[in-house]
Design brief:
This protein is of the alpha+beta class and 125 residues long. It has one domain: Thrombin, subunit H, CATH 2.40.10.220. 17% of the residues lie in helices and 52% in strands. It has one helix and seven strands; from the N terminus they run βββββββα. It has a six-stranded antiparallel barrel with strand order 1-3-4-7-6-5. A hairpin with a 2-residue loop joins β1 and β2. InterPro entries: PilZ_domain (IPR009875).
Amino acid sequence: MRYNREAHFRYTFENPIQAYFQIIKIDGESVKTSEGDARIINISPGGAKIQSKLNIPETDHKSIGLSIRFKLNEKELTYNGFIIWKKVWGATIDYGIKMEEDDDDKKELIDQLKIHSKNVIEHGH
């Protein structure tokens, strides 16, 4: 089996964290919607799985760009990405987001995830 150096680790939160998202692009055209509530289920430097009660239409037919804002270790982080998949689970919808981060953003996220993981191990939260 070949090792994929480009594959990102994925951190799954024991308790999904509160996030807010905003649609910022539809098919390359800039837009700005109000923020919607979401929870981050898991995240990596390359993407995230978020869950929301808001159903974003036409994700199969249009390129939908999002800005996702959340706090990790009391530090507010904001990343942009695109919806690459959507699954409806009753009253909630899961979205797969491909992040568009530069190397500094990726390093910041990894550093914050390391701190979070260490806190979970040491303090159970």
